[in-house]
Write a structure and sequence with these properties.
538 residues, alpha+beta, Alpha-Beta Plaits, four-stranded antiparallel β-sheet, 6% strand, rod-shaped
């Protein structure tokens, strides 16, 4: 059990052993500690001081609500800042500032313009400030470092002005470019819309009459034409019947005067008239069942029936007078006709021939009217037959026109919005940069931080002192403790001879201890005083 405990104790770091080593070799520890700190501290006073001037720029949102005016500039502020930064940090822009303020001009060396630009880029620092909730950039800082605090402030001021002006210029340029692009697209859309309008207009002109919108009108006109055609056909049939009737009457009248061996041909004429009258009355009954009494065909047929009845009565009267002629006179007339002498025309025959001529003219007029009506009916029927195909073609053209019109209206709306947004940017009412904290005049140098250098020097001294102690301890082959002996022999110590110290040794030991503490106090005091001095002059 004791062996196990001893092994565990040997595995633990022997802090007391290390402290004994440092105490034993305090000179080797303190001198490197002091030298390391002193070198770093002295370097903080030797290195040239650099002053940093900074400014805080606030990102102000547009004063106009987006519901009224929609900006046509990208909302990605980070990308725009990167673009602006690249423009400002360009060689041309930086050389203007360098030449203006005579930057990076050293007596011991001559730098090229490119080297000056590279040095200035390293001295410029831009820090973005984001909203903790949504991560949007709300502000950013611009820093510039220089050996001269006034130069640092002036350069920072120039960079700030460049950022503000560049942002306004970039936003205006982007807005104007967007407006010009939309205007060009609108011109193309207008030309396309005019082309579609011309196609629709040409199609309607070429298909006048058979357009879908005219289908109801065509149907109504066709129905009216068909009714007129039927009326004309009925009137024509009546006129043709009248012609047959008149021709029969004329033949009968002529037969009464010129037929040989006949003293009474009345029954034959009366039979024809009666037959014609029955036909007309039957036709009238048929028309009356379909049309009113004021229908033109009904009225015409009634007039024809009245004429027929008059002719019948006249023929009956004429036949009675002819029967009372003496046979001698009738035979003489017949002999004259047979001898080639024409019977004289009676007033009735002349009247009938005049009626027949008028009837034939009426028939011709009716036939021409029917031909014209049939042509019109066929025309409107063809329009109705062509309406489905025209409707499909017109629908395709109208669809193209509607698409062009919608595209044109959308671009027109976007153009108006873009022009308003451009006007807002020109009036500097959009998103802009404003100086929240003007460039400061640095009082203390930003580099080197002498107090920080003191801490670094102390760390370097400690590391250096431990390193020196470790080296001397490594090259020292003497045994200084029981533990070292056990480690070397790998066995237990049986007897320990106590150290015999006389008065001289005791005096020397006390002297070394006092000198060690004095050296430590001096070094510690020096470090504290140097750190305090650095703090006060930082």
């Amino acid at each position: 059990m004791e062996e196990i405990l001893e092994e565990q104790e040997s595995a633990r770091p022997d802090i007391q052993r290390y402290l004994d080593i440092v105490r034993r070799r305090h000179v080797h520890f303190l001198i490197p500690l002091f030298l390391g700190w002193l070198i770093v501290w002295a370097a903080s006073w030797v290195l040239p001081a650099r002053y940093k001037s900074g400014t805080l720029i606030l990102v102000e949102q547009p004063t106009m609500p987006k519901n009224y005016v929609v900006p046509n500039v990208s909302d990605n502020l980070q990308d725009r800042l990167q673009s602006i930064t690249q423009q400002i940090l360009s060689r041309t822009r930086l050389l203007l500032i360098i030449d203006k303020l005579h930057l990076y001009e050293y007596d011991h060396r001559q730098l090229t313009p490119d080297q000056k630009v590279d040095l200035m880029r390293k001295d410029i620092d831009i820090e973005l400030i984001r909203d903790a909730q949504n991560g949007q950039i709300t502000a950013f800082k611009i820093y510039y470092s220089s050996h001269n605090p006034h130069i640092a402030q002036e350069v920072t001021s120039d960079l700030t002005a460049l950022f503000i002006d560049a942002n306004l210029r970039v936003r205006q340029q982007q807005s104007e470019d967007t407006t010009n692009f939309i205007r060009g697209q609108l011109n193309n859309a207008s030309a396309g819309l005019a082309e579609q309008e011309a196609k629709v207009r040409a199609f309607k002109s070429a298909h006048e009459g058979d357009l879908p919108s005219q289908e109801a009108s065509n149907l109504q006109i066709l129905s009216g034409l068909q009714a007129q055609l039927q009326n004309e056909q009925d009137t024509l049939n009546t006129a043709k019947q009248q012609r047959v009737y008149l021709q029969t009457l004329i033949e009968q009248y002529q037969s009464l005067h010129v037929s040989p061996g006949s003293t009474d041909s009345g029954p034959t004429g009366l039979e024809a008239i009666e037959r014609n009258l029955e036909t007309q009355q039957s036709k009238l009954a048929d028309l009356s069942s379909r049309y009113t009494d004021h229908y033109p065909a009904v009225e015409a047929l009634k007039d024809a029936i009245a004429k027929t009845e008059k002719e019948r009565d006249a023929l009956i009267s004429q036949s009675g007078k002819s029967g009372r002629r003496n046979n001698k006179q009738l035979s003489g007339d017949l002999n004259k006709e047979n001898a080639g002498i024409a019977a004289p025309q009676t007033p009735q025959t002349l009247q009938l021939q005049s009626q027949l001529q008028a009837n034939q003219e009426e028939i011709a007029n009716r036939e021409r009217a029917i031909t014209q009506l049939e042509a019109r009916v066929n025309n409107y029927q063809a329009r109705l037959d062509a309406a489905p195909a025209s409707e499909q073609q017109l629908a395709d053209l109208t669809r193209g026109y509607d698409q062009s019109k919608a595209n044109y209206d959308d671009l027109l709306k976007k153009q108006n919005e873009s022009e308003m947004a451009t006007s807002m940017e020109q009036m500097q009412q959009g998103q802009r940069f404003s100086i929240l904290d003007p460039p400061s005049l640095p009082i203390k140098p930003d580099f080197p931080n002498r107090l920080k250098f003191c801490g670094i020097g102390l760390g370097v001294g400690l590391a250096l002192g431990l390193l020196v102690v470790g080296v001397f301890e490594f090259i020292d082959d003497r045994l200084h403790s029981e533990t070292e002996l056990k480690t070397l022999l790998q066995t237990a110590v049986l007897v320990e001879i106590p150290e015999i110290i006389d008065s001289t040794d005791e005096h020397n030991a006390r002297r070394r201890l006092v000198l060690g503490w004095a050296m430590a106090a001096i070094i510690l005091t020096t470090i504290l005083v140097g750190s305090a001095f650095s703090y006060l002059h930082t």
